[in-house]
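Lecture 7 notes: from sequence to structure.
We start with the chain below.
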Amino acid sequence: MRTQLLAVVLIPIITALVLGGLRIGSAVQNAQDIDNVRQLVRLVDKGTGLLEELEDERDLTALYIAAGRTGDTSRLDTQRPQVDAALARVRAEAVHVPRGTNPVLATRLAVLDALGGPVASLRDTVDHSKMRLLSVVNAYTALIAELTDALDLLTPDIAHQTLAVRAGALETFTRATEAASRQRALLGGVLAQGHFDSNEAQGMTLAGRQQQALIREFRAGAPLAQRQFYERTVTGRDVDRAEVLQKQVLARQGTSRLRLDAGESFDTMTSKLELMRLVEKRLVGSVEDESSREQHQAERSVLIVSLVVLLILLLTFGVTHVVMRSIVGPLHTLRASALDITERRLPEVVQLLRGSSDAQLEAIKVEPTGINSADEIGRVAHAFDDVHRDSVRLAFEQAQLRGRINAMFVNLSQRSQTLVERQLELIDHLENGEQDPDLLASLFKLDHLATRMRRNGENLLVLAGEKAGRRWSAPVRLVDVLRAATSEIEQYQRVQLRGLVTADVDGRAVNDIVHLIAELLENAAAFSSPDTEVLVTSQLQSGGGAKVEIQDSGIGMTAQDLEEANERLLNPPVVDVSVARRMGVFVVGQLSGRHGIRVQLRRSSPRGITAVVMLPQKLVREHGDHMDPPGLSARYNPEGRLTGWRNYDTPEQLDESALAKRAYRSRRHGARSAGKEHRSTPSSANRSSAGA
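Predicted structure tokens for the same chain:
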């Protein structure tokens, strides 16, 4: 669930991050592009200055050539260093312009960087050759055209419409200004040389027409403010005189001599050109202002976009956090409640129902999970509360059913034990008055069957969780406990007692230990061949207590069955159907758990199973002076044979089998007498059973 929620949360966050990053990246790239345009605008500004200086050099050179290379060269000598300085400024500014991946821009920047070579070469040619006026003007015009094309830097990189319009108007007007300068060069040269031919006239006419066409294009595409500034600036007497002067010169084509002052005419054309250059500077400033405005807007856009994306991300994180808490919080509460119910509350309820037969369902509180929302998680929590209540109700019903079954077991056990006691008393009465050995042996068999029936009845009490009513008040020797257990199984003749030790067993645990060992002996005899022996040995432990081993030579058990049986002995399961198939193991586990006795099954060598019974120190002590229980005053030789018993003169009066049965009968009679003594005051278990 955590992974799915994390995926659901990460998808919108990642989407917001990607989209926001793309938007911020676009805004940053736009700002960078605008900054690059500003760099180009500054370069265009420097390039426009270089263009004006180069135009002035061309026009002064034309006057110098037209005067036959004999006139005053001071203005030309001053102009050339100014061109070189302007060219150096262009190169210095071009260094800061990023080339990017635009090949056109890279080519134009390369032209600007290499422009110094063509300028120097052209100067050398003009100074050391006899080029005529039109050739010099055309050579400079070609160089200026190359510079003008290289200065068209803004067109490839401008994506903003307003800035593109202003840059286009600047380019158009720059070409118009260059045409006016070329017209000045030709007009001044023609007047300086005093005549001109058709080519020169055609050059002047073409320059004038180009100027007019470019001015019309400028007026058509330039913004209103720039058009108005042009109209206010390029006007006046000098402009009118320049136009009249051009018409007069063209009207005198073919005459032998032009009677106009070249210097005055050059200055008149220069006045008009300066006005146009003033408009050109205004256009450059307008492009710079627009690029600055675009840059500020782009930077502001980056800031706004970044803030918006940040707010969106914060909002996304906030909403996601709230949604996650609204989902994960109740889920954690539901999980904690489920674990608490599974590990603590429900087991406590089951333990309470097991320990008290009078518990009422209404008295058992079922605490809700505490999730009251109306969404799917709340509905799941309410359904879980219903499951919890049904589980408690089912546990209550099972506890009631188990209590009724236990009461049935106790009732059946008490009834059967009452009948068995009456039967034993009748058999005892018949035994006391009977002298026929065969009939006495039959009575012993009936007595033995009745005793086994009583043990089965006590098994019912163990199943019901009750304790048997028979108890000893005084310690009993361990050997007598083992013999009493031996006498309670069907094939007692096969049991051999070896290595017996002199120790006493606490009287309060005697009957449970006899019952426990009898069940183990019964199991060993049942799962071994009838012609084999079941060996019982005992040993005192150095740390206190005693160990009793019951070894058979039977079919044995698999490793898995052995492990499962030992687990059931250590932790007896709840009474269910499987207990009926392994009644002995369940009874042994319950009886050993009452007194802290540890029972473990092991493999025997070469085959069979050995049951090891570890009696704790609190139940076993070394043999001391104590009173024999009534009826257990028989004497045994080291081989375990009876050497003397009251009511019989000699052992030879009975065969060995009958003698063993008589010994068992005597021990059983003594145990029953002691049981009668203690049944006069019922135990708490009996009282509980009677109440049930």
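Points to note: The chain has three domains: 38-298, 356-363+371-469+647-692, 475-626. Residues 262-355 form the longest helix (94 residues).
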